[in-house]
Amino acid sequence: MTKSAAVRRPLPTSPFKTPVPAPPKHFAVGDRVSHDVHGLGRTVGVEGAGDIAVLVDFCGRQVRVLSPYTKLFKL
């Protein structure tokens, strides 16, 4: 049985910089977006103030994209 990978805490004396987390993405209704798999689209709905999911229209096909939106980018 394998153990799950734990997040390592950086040492204060480490010469390496600690990675900075990316700021969370926020989308609003009407934003033009690009998705790595589905292509170009426009947001038509936002769930939970943008923290849960967004509904995106990709040329007549609506797709619900869940947070953390790793493949979705605002144009």
Structure description:
There is one protein chain. Helix content is 0%, strand content 37%. By secondary structure, the protein is mostly beta strands. A 5-stranded antiparallel sheet has the order 4-3-2-1-5, with no helix packed on it. It starts with 31 loop residues before the first strand and ends with a strand.
Strand element count: 5
Distance between the termini: 44 Å
N-to-C SSE series?
A: EEEEE
Tell the overall outline: elongated
Radius of gyration over all CA atoms, rounded: 17 Å
Helix residue percentage: under 10%
In DSSP terms, counting alpha (H) and pi (I) runs of 4 or more, how many helices?
0
Structural class: mainly beta
Strand content: 35-45%
- Chain-averaged pLDDT: 87
Largest sheet: 5 strands, antiparallel
Strand order in the sheet with the most strands? 4-3-2-1-5
Poorly predicted parts: none
Organism: Kitasatospora kazusensis
Protein name: ATP-binding protein
Region (Disordered): 1-24
Keywords:
75 residues; mainly beta; 0% helix; elongated
Condensed summary:
This protein has 75 residues and is an all-beta fold. Helices cover 0% and strands 37% of the residues.
What is the strand and helix layout of this fold?
Blueprint: E1 32-35, E2 39-47, E3 53-58, E4 61-66, E5 72-74
Antiparallel strand pairs: 1-2, 1-5, 2-3, 3-4
